[in-house]
Design a protein that fits this description.
Belongs to the enterotoxin A family. This is Heat-labile enterotoxin. Keywords: Disulfide bond, Enterotoxin, Signal, Toxin, Virulence. One of its GO terms (molecular function) is toxin activity. By secondary structure, the protein is α+β, with helices and mostly antiparallel strands. It has one domain: Heat-Labile Enterotoxin, subunit A (Heat-Labile Enterotoxin, Chain A, Alpha-Beta Complex). The protein has three helices and three strands. Strands 1-3-2 form a three-stranded antiparallel sheet. The longest helix has 11 residues.
Length: 79
């Protein structure tokens, strides 16, 4: 829950063990623009799902702090 909440506020714990991804190209682009605004170039990758990935909205339901982001979190990184 804290990981999902931190995305919007800028208080992401980079050592929490999760990597954020999105089902939405638009959300990925907006995250790139806001988080990496100091860089002129950033990359968006298309990745395959893996067993360590879960849909944040499915897990948190009505408690998902940013359901519009369509976030999928990967525990331990992207394989």
């Amino acid at each position: 829950y804290d990981h999902a909440r931190g995305t919007q506020t800028g208080f992401v714990r980079y050592d929490d063990g999760y990597v954020s991804t999105s089902l939405s190209l638009r959300s990925a682009h907006l995250a790139g623009q806001s988080i990496l605004s100091g860089y002129s170039t950033y990359y968006i990758y298309v990745i395959a799902t893996a067993p360590n990935m879960f849909n944040v909205n499915d897990v948190l339901g009505v408690y998902s702090p940013h359901p519009y982001e369509q976030e999928v979190s990967a525990l331990g990184g992207i394989p």
